[in-house]
Design a protein that fits this description.
86% helix; mainly alpha; 200 residues
Length: 200
């Protein structure tokens, strides 16, 4: 089925706006991290990725996730996020692949989960996407961090402190992001419903 030009244009504009907002929100998160130094900035862009997944599908959400990854990667290169900066210094290739990959994977997975669950009820689709996005994002980050663990331990104060610090920071960020996403799921579902009604 060929998509009408007007609908295609509307879709492109919508994806562009959400992608731009994704970048802005994550840059803002990075700026907060710079003003109040912390090892791992919050993923403030995740709710926007959930909206993109619901409104425009997996590919659009994957694009948003990729752009989210670009911002996170940039924060590491510029030294704003200490952990990311250390990983960039150890292996730019693994850091780049892991950071862009986790953003892309989180967005793509959000779109697929929404598509599967929204067939029965859109709220379940939004809730599923809101849960899976931080899960995928954090899980891949943990894997990448594990790859760098030995070097980071050598550069830091030892294995125990590294494991304690990284566990607390990652766990706290993940918990906050997950709770916020679940709390926003109802509002996101309402926003999507309103926008879709205006399209008709």
């Amino acid at each position: 089925m060929v998509m009408p030009t007007a609908v295609k244009t509307q879709r492109m504009v919508g994806v562009a706006i959400l992608t731009s907002l994704t970048v802005v929100f994550q840059v803002f998160a990075t700026a907060i991290n710079f003003v109040t130094p912390g090892a791992i900035p919050f993923a403030l862009a995740v709710p926007l990725i959930v909206i993109g997944a619901a409104m425009y599908g997996p590919r659009a959400a994957a694009l948003q996730g990729f752009c989210f990854g670009l911002v996170v990667l940039g924060s590491g290169i510029m030294g704003v996020a200490p952990t990311s900066a250390m990983m960039w210094g150890i292996s730019p290739v693994i850091m780049t692949a892991g950071t862009l990959g986790r953003g892309l994977a989180a967005g793509l997975t959000a779109g697929l989960v929404y598509k599967a669950l929204a067939r029965k009820e859109t709220y379940f689709g939004v809730l599923g996407a809101a849960i899976i996005t931080p899960v995928v994002n954090t899980s891949i980050f943990v894997v990448v961090l594990f790859l760098f663990s030995e070097v980071l331990i050598e550069q830091g104060a030892g294995r125990t402190i590294f494991q304690y610090a990284s566990g607390i920071m990652i766990g706290f960020n993940f918990f906050v992001e997950l709770v916020v996403n679940i709390a926003l799921a109802t509002n996101i579902d309402r926003i999507i419903g309103i926008v879709k009604k205006k399209r008709v």
